[in-house]
Design a protein that fits this description.
By secondary structure, the chain is an alpha+beta fold. It has helices at 12-19, 29-44, 46-55, 58-62, 66-75, 86-101, 174-188, 209-217, 247-252, 335-350, 352-361; strands at 108-119, 130-133, 139-152, 155-164, 197-202, 221-225, 232-235, 243-246, 255-266, 275-293, 304-316, 324-328. The protein has 2 domains: 9-79, no CATH class; 86-361, Transposase Inhibitor Protein From Tn5, Chain A, domain 1, CATH 3.90.350. Strands 1, 2, 3, 4, 5, 6, 7, 8, 9, 10, 11 and 12 form a 12-stranded mixed beta sheet that branches. The two termini are 32 Å apart.
């Protein structure tokens, strides 16, 4: 049996600082002291704990170095010959995700992308920490994440997960990470595209002509929430000629195409807090035309392209929420087509818990 780790006095201060974050969760001082001492004892008895873990396995208990094997696995020393790293593990997860989606019914596959922060406010020694935005607006240590979830009727599959930091040695830019995700997922679902129409459902962080360009080059569609209403486009009303302007101007000329009812967690009227309830969504839409360069965020020459799109406004009546302003290459000419786009973006809200699981568990 291995000897216990000798506790070193110099560890005391960092440990106290680390455990301080948990004091607000502990009801009394005596419990807090006990908690701190137990954590210290676990660290100090590290090799003994590994021996006890090994003793529960018939295979490891029979080996002369069972406890050491557990310890080497925990510290990563035994995985040098294995592809037990984030890239290969998430590739296996992606393969399982595609297999989960393959038997699905329907004729569409929605790829719901999420870019967000993984906050580690009390971390100090984790590798390549960067500054990310906390919920209160302050900057805290953490990482950025990219996740893509494939959605079909009655089926979901995780197709991409990547944690990254701007302080990594090989970091180029966040748009480069997004491009990598777009290509990787498109390649993963290439066989499904033979029978399914693939659409990316994107939040405002993906309001980028380079993202849209890549989606279209991959013969895929998109619905994206607008972050840059000042974007220059052309718009028209009815059968009028195209007018130059921006998305804000085009929004003023949208026409009502339909309404829909949905259940959402919202705050209405004089309600003190948000709750799950039925709300009515009013949907307005109109055509716009985008001019872009194919070499945006790329080296070398490109071409000027034009793409006819649709601008869709979804306003949740009776709430104080800002309307959703969406841009899509799905034609939106009537209530049925507007409802289709609304359901796609509404589904993105419905999978927030899945993204939370990916951020919390796949790191």
């Amino acid at each position: 049996m291995g000897m216990p780790v000798t506790w070193e006095a110099k560890w005391q201060s960092p440990l106290v600082d680390y455990l301080a974050a948990y004091r607000s969760l502990i009801g009394d001082q005596r419990t807090a002291v006990t908690f701190g001492e137990v954590v210290q004892d676990i660290i100090g008895a590290g090799s003994l704990v590994c021996e006890r873990i090994a003793a529960q396995s018939a295979v490891l208990a029979a080996a002369q170095d069972g406890g050491q094997r557990v310890s080497r696995l925990a510290t990563g020393e035994s995985t040098q010959r294995s592809q037990l790293d984030a890239e290969h593990l998430t590739a296996q997860l992606r393969q399982r995700g595609v297999a989960q989606l393959a038997p699905g019914t329907g004729d569409e596959l929605w790829l719901i992308a999420d870019g967000s922060e993984l906050r580690k406010p009390y971390a100090q020694a984790m590798p390549a920490l960067m500054q990310v935005r906390a919920l209160d607006g302050d900057l805290v240590p953490g990482y950025r994440t990219l996740n893509v979830l494939g959605v079909m009727p009655q089926r979901r599959g995780v197709l991409y997960h990547r944690l990254f930091s701007s302080t990594e040695a090989d970091f180029i830019s966040e748009p480069a990470k997004v491009q990598q995700a777009l290509h990787t997922v498109s390649q993963a679902v290439r066989d499904l595209k033979a029978r399914l129409t693939v659409s990316w459902v994107l939040d405002s962080g993906f309001d980028d002509a380079a993202v849209w360009r890549t989606v279209w080059e991959q013969q895929e569609r998109l619905v994206c929430r607008v972050q840059h209403p000042e974007r220059l486009i052309e718009y028209r009303v009815g059968n009028d000629a195209w007018h130059s302007g921006n998305l804000n101007k085009a929004q003023e000329r949208l026409r009502l195409v339909g309404t829909a009812q949905t259940t959402m967690v919202v705050q209405r009227g004089r309600q003190e807090r948000a709750k799950e309830q039925v709300v009515t969504a009013a949907m307005r839409a109109g055509p716009v035309r985008l001019t872009y360069e194919t070499n945006v965020r790329r080296e070398g020459p490109g071409e000027t392209q034009q793409k006819e799109l649709w601008l869709v406004e979804v306003r949740l009546l009776g709430t104080k929420l800002e309307p959703w302003l969406l841009i899509t290459d799905w034609p939106v000419t009537d209530e049925a087509s507007a409802l289709h786009v609304f359901r796609m973006y509404r589904q993105r809200w419905a999978v927030e818990e899945s993204f939370k699981f990916s951020r919390d568990c796949l790191v």
